[in-house]
Amino acid sequence: MTRRPTLFIALIALVLAASTVAGCGSSSDDGSGSKPPDYARLLAGSPAPLAALHSQANQLLPGGTDAYEKRIAALRGYPIVTNVWASWCGPCRFEFPVLQKLSARYGKQVAFLGVDSQDSADAATTYLEGTPVPYPSYSDPDKDIADSIGASLGLPNTAFYNRAGTLCFLKQGQYPDTSELEADVRRFALREECEGG
Questions:
Q1: Which of 8, 36, 89, 186 has a CA that sits 20 to 30 A from residue 132's CA?
Q2: Phi, psi (degrees; rounded to nearest 5) at 55
Q3: What is the β-pairing status of strands 111-117 and 80-85?
Q4: How far apart are the first and last CA of the chain?
Q5: Residues ≥6 apart with Cβ < 8 Å to 90
Q6: Chain segment 32-64, per-residue pLDDT in tens
Q7: What predicted TM-score, i.e. pTM, was given to this entire model?
Q8: Residue 139, SS3?
């Protein structure tokens, strides 16, 4: 008779522990618990090529490497920051809230793009619904775009292009903290340290 209450208490404790862990995981690693910036207000009046990106916010675009490279060429005159990510990638989820803020802050001067690599479209779309960004991502299930820019050491990766569309810096792996990601946006996109690259 004493085993049954003990078993019942153990099961309740297990259920509570599991729900606590699940709750912690969703709020701490994906940034979806925070409200995104007011993109419409902050990015109003963007130049036409950047406004075209904003009009495709959260979309997964087809076309692979060819479509991605055509977009890079079409953005000539603007520095570009491309984030290579996946919905299943914990470090990518850590960086997403920072990308939300930076793309809202600098999106009238800098083109932001995403590359959703090695991911399913359903999972990526679901993630973007909870963590929206004001730019599109190119679907890259076979890692072709990622490979074309040299993003081969896991995810996330962040590529910086100069105004001529030349890839001048690739950060492979997660930024150790959010201030370093912002510093590289300022260094490579706004100060154009890679202009000669």
A1: 186
A2: -70, -15
A3: parallel
A4: 76
A5: 29
A6: 456 889 999 999 999 999 999 999 999 999 999
A7: 0.81
A8: strand
